[in-house]
Amino acid sequence: MNKGKNKKKLTYFDCLGFCTGQIIGSGIFVLTGVVIGFTGHGTPYAFIVSAFYALVVMLPSAVLASTIPASGAGFSYVKKLLGDKAGFMYLFMFVLTQLLIATFAKGFGSYFVSLFPTFNENTIAIGVLILCTAINLIGLKTSAKAQKTMVGLLIVSLLAFVIFGLPQVEWSNLAITTANIMPNGFKEFIHGAILLSFAAGGARYVAENGEEIEEPGKTIPKAMITSTLGACALYALLGIVASSVLPIEEVAFKNLTLVAQNIFPPWLYVFFVVGGAMFALLTTLNGTLSWVTRGLQAAAKEGWLPDAFAKENKGGTPVLLLGFFFIVGIVPIITGLDLKTIADMGIGFDQLCEGILIVAAFKLPKKYPEAFKNAPFTFKESTFYILLTTCIFLRFGSAYVELAELESKLYIAVAIAVYIIIAYMFTYIGYRNVTDKKLKSREIQLEENMR
What we know:
Blueprint: H1 3-6, H2 12-23, H3 26-39, H4 43-67, H5 73-82, H6 84-97, H7 101-115, H8 121-137, H9 144-165, H10 178-181, H11 186-200, H12 216-244, H13 248-251, H14 257-263, H15 266-291, H16 294-302, H17 319-334, H18 339-361, H19 364-367, H20 369-374, H21 381-404, H22 409-450
C-alpha cells in the first residue's frame, strides 16, 4: 500500500493557521518602530498600503501554487520554468535575504535589554544566535504544538496592546493630511510600507508545502488572502497605538516597549515583552535556522555544491550549511550594522529574489497551458501578463527603494557585484557536476535494466 496516499494532508484551516503564524510574527516587533521613524503618524496608513501591496505581489505565487503545486515552491518554480541554472542562481540570491537572521537576534537583544538594561544588546544578540544554532545542531526542533502556542501568545499580546492602547490614543494625530502622514515625504512613506510588507507578506510561504495540502489550487490562494486581510487589520490598529500614544520623537526607530510601558500595568508589560516579543523572536530565529539550510542542501545533493554540504549529523542537521547561515547572521551584528540597515539590505534582496520568481511566472501559460487554463485560481492569460508586469515593477522598484537607502552604496554595489560573479562561477562549475551526475545515474539505470 502506498503510504504517501494515506498521509494526512493540510486542510484550509491548517493553512489558515500556518499563514497567520507566518504573518503575525517577529517582523511586527522589529519593524514597527523603524517605520514610525519614516512615516510618523502615517504608520497605520502605511500598514494598510502594505497589506494591499502584499496581496498584489502575492497573486503570482497563488497562481503558481494553483497551477503546479510543489514543495520548495520558489526554487522548484524557477527551476521548472527557467531551468536548472536559474534555479541555482535563485538560491544564491535567497542566501542574501537571510541577512534578516540578524534582525531576529538583534530584536531579541533589544527587548531583553528593555527588561535588563545592564546587559549589552549586541552581546545578547550574539548569545541567542549561538544558542539557536546549538539547538539546531543537535536536532532539537520546535514542535508544532509549541508553534501553535507561540501564535496564540502573539495574538493575545498584540490584542492586549491594541485594547489597552486605543483609549490612550490622541486621535487628532490620525488627520489625513500630507504633512501628517508623510512627514518625511512620499518616498519615505513608501519605504516604510515596503518594510511592513515583509511583515504582512508571510502567507506566501504556505506555497512551499504545496504537495502536502488538500486541493492546493483552491486552498492556498484562499488561505493567503483571508489571513493577510485579517492580520493586517490587526496591524493597522497596532500602528495607531504605536504611533499615537507617545510623541513621535520618543518612539521613532525604537521597539514597542516604550509604548507598552506607558499603557500596561507592570505584570502585563512583562508578559508582553517576554511572552510576546522575546518568545516570538526566539522561536522565529530557531525556526528559521531549522529550515533555511534545506534549499542549498538539496542543491548539494544534485551536485551544485560539494557533497560535504549535503551531509547531516546524527540529529539530521546539515552542519556545514548551518554554520554558513550562522556566519550570515552574525556578521551584520559584529560589524555594528544597525537594525534599519540590516532590514533594508535583507528586504531589498528579498524583493529581488521574489522578482526572479515573477520573471519565471511569465513562462507558466506557455509551458503548462492546460494546467494554467484549468487551475482553480487563475486569470485570463492577457490579465495574468498585466499582473506580472505590475508585480515586476513593484518588486524591482521596491528593491531599489530599500537598497538606495543604504549608506556606502558604492562599497555595497561592489560587494554585490563580486557576489554575483562568484554565484555565476559556482553555477557554471556546478552545472557540469549536475550534468555528470545525471549521466552517471542514467548509465546505472540502463545497466540495471539490461540485467
